[in-house]
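In the design runs reported in the main text, the only information available to the sequence generator was the tokenized backbone. The following block is the verbatim input for one such run; it is reproduced so that readers can re-run the procedure and compare outputs position by position.
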């Protein structure tokens, strides 16, 4: 196999195909023809001297040996996007740039941001929701809100809070099933699962809460499984079933009456959420104010 890097265009075409699952979808994303995508992938296969795609009739998918290669490429392109976003933020001269886990930004930080401006005055803030952790050197230009031990990879980190979990449902769901508040019947109710992936296997799920209360695990498969807690909570709010919710993520919907807490019993998250930053972030007043404000909000 040659040691020279393949052309960026060929790598881009292959990464897009593997992520989207079809040549046509990759062509639409890249703004080229399907034939051009296929040609670039063939060029890449020729240079790498290995097949990257296997076909089953008219359907094409990644060859087994190409999946790990594609995963690394996807991570690389994501970092390129992060670098571009970072440059755009600097050019735009925004006051504060915050990267964070999507639901943590949507359900915890975003509802509070008006309080920051009320205390410290107007500020231009960029919020970037992503599960991909930025390179540590990027944190000289942004904050990162994240979860667990990954925070130790960044120059500076402070714990925000350690959340607790409990089951929730919608008011309409409870109206149709008034016996849903009986703990003995929870395992038989339709439920929504939240799965962050294998890297977060210790994060509790509904079955863990039930077992902790001495109850049976769910008797049926979940009606749906969501990688985003916010997506699962929306499914619950629409009446599709019950779910194990984190207090920080469900608090606003509970206050608005979109969700109902089904029990006062809780199970803790195994690790805290963190805010992380680099040393240069503290050279400017507005980022310093933001850090102090976030820490005070978490303390409440």
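Verbatim output:
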């Amino acid at each position: 196999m040659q040691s020279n890097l393949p052309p960026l265009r060929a790598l881009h075409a292959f990464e897009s195909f593997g992520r989207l699952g079809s040549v046509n979808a990759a062509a639409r994303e890249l703004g080229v023809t399907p034939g051009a995508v296929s040609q670039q992938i063939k060029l890449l296969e020729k240079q790498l001297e290995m097949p990257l795609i296997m076909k089953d009739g008219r359907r094409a998918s990644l060859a087994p040996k190409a999946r790990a290669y594609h995963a690394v490429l996807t991570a690389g392109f994501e970092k390129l996007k992060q670098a571009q976003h970072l440059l755009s933020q600097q050019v735009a001269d925004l006051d504060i740039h915050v990267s964070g886990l999507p639901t943590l930004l949507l359900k915890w930080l975003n509802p509070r941001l008006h309080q920051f401006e009320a205390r410290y005055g107007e500020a231009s803030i960029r919020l970037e929701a992503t599960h991909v952790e930025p390179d540590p050197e990027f944190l000289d230009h942004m904050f990162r809100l994240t979860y667990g031990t990954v925070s130790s990879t960044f120059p500076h980190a402070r714990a925000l809070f350690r959340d607790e979990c409990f089951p929730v449902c919608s008011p309409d769901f409870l109206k149709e099933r008034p016996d849903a508040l009986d703990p003995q019947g929870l395992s038989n109710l339709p439920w929504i699962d939240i799965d962050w992936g294998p890297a977060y296997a210790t994060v509790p799920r509904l079955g863990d809460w039930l077992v902790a209360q001495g109850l049976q695990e769910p008797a049926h498969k979940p009606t749906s499984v969501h990688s985003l807690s916010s997506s699962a909570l929306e499914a619950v709010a629409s009446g599709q079933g019950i779910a194990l919710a984190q207090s920080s993520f469900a608090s606003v919907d509970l206050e608005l009456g979109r969700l109902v807490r089904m029990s006062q019993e809780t199970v803790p998250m195994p690790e805290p959420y963190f805010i992380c930053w680099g040393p240069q972030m503290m050279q400017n007043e507005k980022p310093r104010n933001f850090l102090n404000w976030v820490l005070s909000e978490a303390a409440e």
